[in-house]
Design goal:
- The complex is a heterodimer of chains A (about 110) and B (about 110).
- Chain A has about 110 residues and is mostly beta strands.
- With about 110 residues, chain B is mostly beta strands.
- In chain B, strands 2, 4, 5, 6, 9, 10 and 11 form a 7-stranded mixed sheet that branches. A 4-stranded antiparallel sheet of chain B has the order 1-3-8-7, with no helix packed on it.
- The radius of gyration of chain B is 13 Å and the shape is globular.
- Classes of the chains: A mainly beta (about 110), B mainly beta (about 110).
């Protein structure tokens, strides 16, 4: 079945860039998502990219997609302490985001 | 924030008892979902609904049932709770139109089965 993998932890200094990586196995993935989860809260959709795109930028967030390698990354520029959270990568094969497969999440710690 | 509430927010119950979790939305969105999240894991889809009285199974549906009698409410029932169902349960909604990639999550219900 489909599988989405992420590294579990990332630690950066405030002001540095953070890069969170994700790999997926389903070559028919149509949409790829990044979610943020803060302690005790639900998931918040940060950004998404269609599979026919290579890059998407949204303020401090840059998403890169290498469809050949099935690799997705999320770059956060000028990382702040408020960015500390768990970041989840997810993929879906259709426009129904709810039938996504999620990775296990990357815990980002931002040190002052 | 999208208008999604979950009740209860915390529950402790004993093995073998029935439990019902409620998700309520004020957005009039077509799709509603129930997920569970376990430590160190992403979310896994339990059941989802694509309209009133229209539901389907997700990845981990065994031991769970759902009902949707109104657009705004989606109920998740554990008929006979087991310790393996100790988890945090999240409800989510999405519009069901061209913007279906937008999914909004509720605050979660922490369920402990002793």
């Amino acid at each position: 079945g489909e599988d989405v993998e992420q590294s579990l932890f990332l630690s950066v200094r405030e002001g540095d860039s953070s890069v969170i990586n994700c790999t997926y196995t389903d070559s028919s993935s149509t949409y790829l998502y990044w979610y943020k989860q803060e302690p005790g809260a639900g998931l918040q959709l940060l950004t998404y990219i269609f599979s026919n795109m290579d890059m998407k930028q949204d303020q401090r967030l840059t998403v890169l997609l290498n469809k050949k390698d099935k690799h997705l990354s999320l770059r956060i520029a000028d990382t702040q302490t408020g960015d500390s959270a768990i970041y989840f990568c997810a993929e879906s094969r259709g426009t129904n985001a709810g039938k996504s497969t999620f990775g296990d999440g990357t815990t980002l710690t931002v040190k002052p | 924030d999208a208008g999604i509430t979950q009740s209860p927010r915390h529950k402790v119950t004993e093995t073998g008892t029935p439990v019902t979790l409620r998700c309520h939305q004020t957005e009039n969105h077509r799709y509603m979902y129930w997920y569970r999240q376990d430590p160190g894991h992403g979310l896994r889809l339990i059941h989802y609904s694509y309209g009133v009285k229209d539901t389907d199974k997700g990845e981990v549906s065994d031991g769970y049932s759902v009902s949707r009698s109104k657009t705004e409410d989606f109920l998740l029932t554990l008929e006979s709770a087991t310790s393996s169902q100790t988890s945090v349960y999240f409800c989510a909604i999405s519009p069901g139109d061209l913007s279906s990639y937008e999914q909004y999550f509720g605050p979660g219900t922490r369920l402990t089965v002793t």
